[in-house]
Amino acid sequence: MRGAGADLAFLADTRALLERTPRVLRDLLSGMPAAWLETADTPDGWRPRDVVGHLITAEQTDWIPRVERILDGGTAVPFDLLDRFAQVGRDDAKSLDDLVAEFAALRAASLARLDELVSPADLERRGTHPSLGEVTLREHLATWAVHDLDHVSQAFAGMAGSYDAEVGPWKVYLGILLRREDPSAVAS
Amino acid sequence: MRGAGADLAFLADTRALLERTPRVLRDLLSGMPAAWLETADTPDGWRPRDVVGHLITAEQTDWIPRVERILDGGTAVPFDLLDRFAQVGRDDAKSLDDLVAEFAALRAASLARLDELVSPADLERRGTHPSLGEVTLREHLATWAVHDLDHVSQAFAGMAGSYDAEVGPWKVYLGILLRREDPSAVAS
To answer: Which of B5, B35, B123, B140 has the fewest CB atoms inside 10 Å of its own CB, making it the most exposed?
Structure first.
């Protein structure tokens, strides 16, 4: 416990990030020319549409379901594992704009459910992660937000990769391009 | 030359990215709780407000001024170097929301000027970079766009870093956090 005020602020801060992600993805990706969208962040990585598909999967099967498991059963039943490749094939017939809109609708529903389910007093309640062991609801919610930032950044890296050849000699200054080939690269 | 159609598409594609960046930054940062905003991407890196300050500097002194130098003088006079620390001190009295709005206004003016100045036939015109040597206008414009993606990602990394301690054991899965400490780290 950190005090009710700090817990309330943590929930509000986390929610503020979570509610922004659909808007950021829409601004970045909806209607974007295909020239930016067909490149993965790394050779075996994901294109922006794969990233959005993964975020859809996590919204459907991970974030709120794990909140419910913590609140309903505590540490007794471990979380189900997230299928990291559920989007493969599933989303092929959908446009990127459709996927972005689908994610936005799922996120809005998740946040409404979060508001119903979680109060500041719940943040230290615990569940069991199948690999990591005991975790708190606070850590789960923080991870939800940072997972958004991680994957939106991945979409940015794929988009940058679409212009890898276009920047010519400037590539040595652009860490976002250098790191696609060598994770330890540091821009000049 | 790649043909007038391809050159026209390159200009439109590049512009599509450039015009989205102010919206992405506004959605991500405006009104955001301070808990997300006080951490740099790396120990000697930048907070989100430093990133926006740097983007303001580049808008004021780099992107359009270098376009003008290429069009006016070709390779004869090298570009002026960008001051990477111009934002230090300069922006201290401004709120992050003010900086985001200032950047948006500068970007809108830059794009209007780009439309006046550059046609597809200009893309192979050349200038001189003080360190990189001869570069084309096409490479300069591509770099402008990728530079946006690179620095917005940097803001994301700083925001993620604000929650570094909150995610608990999940950190091993979150590359955006691991890379802040070890650029070569790969998430589990």
So the answer is: B5
* Mean local confidence (pLDDT), A133-152: 98
Residue B135: strand, helix, or coil: strand
CB distance B139–A175 less than 8 Å? no
From the list A147, A154, A151, A149, the residue with the least C-alpha distance to A39 is: A154
Chain B neighbors of A23, CB-CB under 8 A: 27
* Beta-carbon separation of A176 and B149 below 8 A: yes
**Is residue B28 within 8 Å of residue A156, measured between CB atoms?**
no
Condensed to tens digits (0 to 9), the pLDDT of residues B101-130 reads: 999 999 999 999 999 999 999 999 999 999
Question: Which pLDDT score, from 0 to 100, does residue B182 have?
Answer: 87
- Predicted confidence at residue A1, as pLDDT, reads 57
Yes or no: say if A98 and A26 are a contact pair by the CB < 8 Å rule. no
Give Cα separations from A148 to A153, A184, B50, B62, B166 (angstroms).
8, 23, 22, 32, 15
Contacts of B175 in chain A (CB under 8 A): 150
Of A48-57, A78-87, B126-135, the range with the lowest mean pLDDT is: A78-87
User: What band does B1 get if pLDDT is binned at 50, 70 and 90?
Assistant: low
Please give the Cα distance from A173 to A175 (Å, whole number).
6
Asked if B186's CB is within 8 angstroms of A184's CB, the reply is: no
Cβ contact (<8 Å) for A175 and B150? Answer: yes
The answer, for B73 touching chain A at a CB cutoff of 8 Å, is no
